[in-house]
Each structure stands twice: as structure tokens, then as C-alpha cells.
Amino acid sequence: MWRLSVSKTPDRPVRSRNEDxxxxxxxxxxxxxxxxxxxxxxxMTEEADVRCGLDGLAHAYGFKGFIVIAVPVRDSNSLxxxxxxxxxxxxxxxGYDEANLMAGSPVxxxxxxxxxxxxxxxxxxxxxxxxxxxxxxxxLFDRMGMKRGIYIPxxxxxxxxxxxxxxxxxxxxxxxxxxxxTFVAGGLFNRLSELKAKNYARNNTPLSKRELECLFWAAAGxxxxxxxxxxxxxxxxxxxxxxxxxxxxxxxxxxxxxxxAIRAGLIN
Length: 268
Hints:
By secondary structure, the chain is α+β, with helices and mostly antiparallel strands. Helices cover 45% and strands 16% of the residues. It is built from 11 helices and 9 strands. The strands form 2 sheets. It has a 7-stranded antiparallel β-sheet with strand order 2-3-7-8-9-5-6. Strands 1-4 form a two-stranded antiparallel sheet. β2 (15-17) and β3 (23-25) form a beta hairpin. α1 (47-60) runs antiparallel to α7, α8 (209-219) crosses α11 (254-263) and α9 (224-231) crosses α10 (235-248).
């Protein structure tokens, strides 16, 4: 179990509902350091170390599991493609994507525009969907034992936006628990991004500067025509760079290529 030394915080969570019906936590987090003095992120040299740390963290706080994602681009409809690391059942990810639940998710929408940690409750969130898939959501989360949990928006040193989530059936986390989890999750996400970038550089053909530029603007939602104007290139040349990046990253389309580049820490 993680041993954290923290300053005292109120026993009751300080929170309020936002416009999505999700709970925001206050941002007055106190300084939190591991009791043994180790700097968690710097002690890990392999992705497996980060996985072990997240798994231990989830169980220490009474959650069933964790998931780390890169915040999906707006054209993405796949949770699995956005997942960097998880111990949630593959059946959950498969069922989520087969039902196309990302498009109407209030959680994903919140992550795209906020950096404030929040809780989720499948019962409450399922009622707020506008796509009529509330019953599907509730059934999936209930079957997987992930009815309640938290999402912690994070980012690495390159500015890549992601989220670390913990899910299970436990009660709502306290303010102190949220502060502790936010601190540790941020460090683990940053370390994971560093390791993924190093592993990619070691095992793959590097992308050129132009390929990275095109992927960056594709991730920002720009069309081929818009990218051509921004980069002062022809549309043919932009497509050439994007197609080459797609081959290098062994992807099947532009959306998957962007998702892979984000997961590898190549673009933010």
C-alpha cells in the first residue's frame, strides 16, 4: 500500500456539481510527498513499473482498477485506441466501443475542456446522455463492477493532455484522498509518457518534422486544405506526409495515426 504524508484536509469532500452534473473538487491541494522520501516517477525505468504502481494505487484506495488515456481528439470514437494503459477488462473496452458510447459521453466531453478532477457515477451520468444509450452505459459499468470512480485530468512535460481514472464500487472519495491521488497520478502519467517516447524512438522509424507538423494540425481538427494553407504546402504534399506517417505508425486511417502519435508522446 502507498504510504503518503499529507497535511490535514477536511474529512468531508469539498465539491459542487458542474454543468454536466459531475462533481468538481476544490483545487486547494496541500503538498503531498511519499513518506519514505522516494520520488515515485523517477524510480520507474519500465512501463511495467508504472503499471504496477497504478495497480497498487487503485487497490490501496479501494478501487477495482485503473485506466490511463490520452484525451481523445474530437473525431475519435474509440476508447481502446485512446488507452495508454489499463487493467480494466478488455471486454469493457470492446463493449464501450461497439456501442459507440464515446460520442455522447459527458465524461469525455468534460475531459476535453477541463483540468479539474471529478467523480463519476454511472447511474447519474447515464441519465444525462442525449443519445438514448443510458441503459447500455449502466448495464456495461454495472456488469464490469465500475459503477463509481474518479477521473483526474493530467498532462506531461510536452503538454500532452490525458486522464487517469480509477473505477469500482467504493464510496465517494474524500477531499484528502482526491488530493493524494491527483498528486501521484500526475507523476505517474508524466513518467509513462517519457517511457513511451523512449520506447518508440528505440523501436520505430522516426517521423520527420513535416510529418509531425501535419499530425499536430490533424489532431487540432484541421482539414487537409486548412493544413496546406497553414504550412504553405499543396494538399497533395500534406496528404503525402500524412500517408507516410500512417505507414510508419502501422495505422489504418488518419484518426488512428493521430491517436497512436499522441499515445507515443510524439505530439500533444
